[in-house]
């Protein structure tokens, strides 16, 4: 009888876990401040933490800072926000969060030194004391990420020399050989990933070069090296997923000319070298996205599924490691067009209970500038909800 009761309980739990659900809320009310580029993580106690940057603009406004907020496990109300990083007189932008295998919380972000993206300097903080809900993490380490890009000038020359020669390619070749320029301007966007070996890979990109590069650490952030650059025509803001055979796959935002498609590349040596960057079949309007590997081996991607506009935000699932994306559902879909709403720069995680959490910029563009029209939104849903479709 006991076994029968346990069987019914197991079946009931399985049935409940397959019931589609979706809920969403703004982390704070709409406001006139520029709130953008969020990242979300689940903490070891089950709480969620989200970070984003806030201020009166982006790289040209010196009051821009990184803020964060916390959602206690089981609660539907976010705690009041607090400051995570604020470099006086400089914009702090594009932050990301990461919890490593030692349960240390990382905050990584670029400080813009001279109000141009290519003058950005990567910073990171690490905390083991961050479980107090009412106060910001207590940072034990506050460091600058410094590295010498691997085979940079050689790789830039190898790839760019095969392109039609223009003023842009000439400038790329000159900058590729410039030590100062090649070591500055790298920025975060998507989550770092930790490999089974313990290597942490931080996906980076440069608006100065308009392509990507990976920062690598094998000692928990004490020292850094880099991958070879992923030289391309506009492949930026990379996100990384790992195949069952250990191959790393990156998808990148398309910051280049039409057709607008996510760029992709792969690595078979844990992120040191990467295959030539090519277009995928996945549309991208020149907006950030993120892909993750789920506990069952499936892949999930959150992205603007258009070639133009950010008024449609979708989540897609692949059960064949990115060969096809069989299921898609929209978190946001504003049929009034690009002028009505902008839902973009998403961050995606799978929680330990198997459900999915996303955070993204939520802009109501039809409301006049200067009015309350921007926030960060959180969505909670499961795989079955995605599979049911719109």
User: How much is the radius of gyration in Å?
Assistant: 21 Å
Helix-and-strand structural type: mainly beta
For the record, give the distance between the C-alpha atoms at the N and C termini, rounded to a whole number.
Answer: 42 Å
Count of β-strands: 25
If you average the pLDDT, what whole number results?
A: 94
Poorly predicted parts = 4-16
Q: Which sequence of SSEs, written as H and E, runs from N to C?
A: HEEEEEEEEEHHHEEEEEEEEEEEEEEEEH
Structure explained in plain terms:
The chain has 390 residues and is mainly β. The protein is built from 5 helices and 25 strands. The chain has helices at residues 2-17, 152-160, 167-176, 179-183, 383-388, and strands at 22-26, 34-42, 48-55, 65-71, 82-85, 96-99, 105-112, 120-127, 141-144, 186-187, 193-194, 200-206, 211-217, 225-226, 235-242, 248-254, 261-267, 278-283, 290-293, 299-304, 312-318, 327-333, 342-350, 356-363, 374-381. The termini are far apart.
SSE blueprint:
Elements: H1 2-17, E1 22-26, E2 34-42, E3 48-55, E4 65-71, E5 82-85, E6 96-99, E7 105-112, E8 120-127, E9 141-144, H2 152-160, H3 167-176, H4 179-183, E10 186-187, E11 193-194, E12 200-206, E13 211-217, E14 225-226, E15 235-242, E16 248-254, E17 261-267, E18 278-283, E19 290-293, E20 299-304, E21 312-318, E22 327-333, E23 342-350, E24 356-363, E25 374-381, H5 383-388
Antiparallel strand pairs: 1-25, 2-3, 3-4, 4-5, 6-7, 7-8, 8-9, 10-12, 11-12, 12-13, 13-14, 15-16, 16-17, 17-18, 19-20, 20-21, 21-22, 23-24, 24-25
């Amino acid at each position: 009888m006991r076994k029968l009761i346990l069987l019914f309980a197991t079946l009931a739990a399985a049935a409940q876990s397959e019931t589609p659900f979706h809920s969403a809320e703004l982390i704070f009310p709409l406001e006139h401040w520029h709130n953008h580029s969020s990242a979300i993580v689940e903490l070891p106690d089950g709480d969620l933490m989200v970070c984003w940057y806030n201020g009166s603009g982006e790289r040209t406004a010196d009051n821009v800072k990184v803020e964060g907020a916390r959602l206690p496990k089981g609660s539907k109300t976010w705690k009041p926000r607090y400051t995570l990083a604020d470099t006086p007189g400089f914009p702090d932008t594009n932050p990301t969060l990461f919890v490593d295998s030692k349960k240390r919380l990382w905050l990584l972000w670029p400080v813009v030194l001279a109000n141009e993206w290519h003058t950005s300097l990567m910073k990171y903080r690490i905390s083991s004391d961050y479980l107090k809900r009412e106060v910001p993490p207590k940072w034990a380490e506050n460091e600058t990420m410094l590295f010498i890009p691997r085979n940079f000038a050689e790789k830039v020359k190898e790839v760019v020399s095969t392109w039609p020669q223009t003023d842009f390619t000439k400038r790329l070749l000159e900058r590729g050989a410039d030590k100062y320029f090649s070591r500055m301007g790298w920025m975060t966007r998507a989550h770092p990933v930790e490999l089974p070996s313990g290597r942490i890979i931080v996906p980076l990109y440069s608006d100065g070069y308009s392509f990507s590069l990976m920062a690598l650490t094998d000692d928990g952030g004490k020292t850094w090296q880099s991958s070879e650059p992923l030289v391309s025509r506009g492949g930026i803001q990379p996100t990384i997923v790992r195949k069952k055979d250990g191959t790393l796959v990156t998808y990148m935002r398309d910051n280049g000319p039409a057709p607008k498609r996510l760029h992709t590349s792969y690595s078979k040596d844990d992120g040191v070298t990467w295959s030539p960057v090519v277009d995928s079949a996945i549309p991208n309007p020149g907006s950030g996205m993120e892909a993750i590997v789920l506990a069952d081996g499936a892949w999930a991607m959150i992205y603007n599924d258009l070639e133009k506009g950010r008024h449609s935000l979708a989540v897609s699932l692949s059960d064949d490691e990115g060969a096809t994306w069989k299921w898609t559902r929209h978190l946001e879909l504003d049929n009034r067009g690009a002028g009505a709403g902008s839902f973009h720069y998403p961050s995606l995680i799978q929680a330990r209970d198997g459900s999915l959490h996303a955070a993204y910029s939520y802009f109501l563009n039809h409301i006049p500038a200067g009015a309350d029209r921007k926030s960060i939104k959180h969505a909670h849903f499961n795989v079955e909800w995605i599979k049911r479709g719109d």
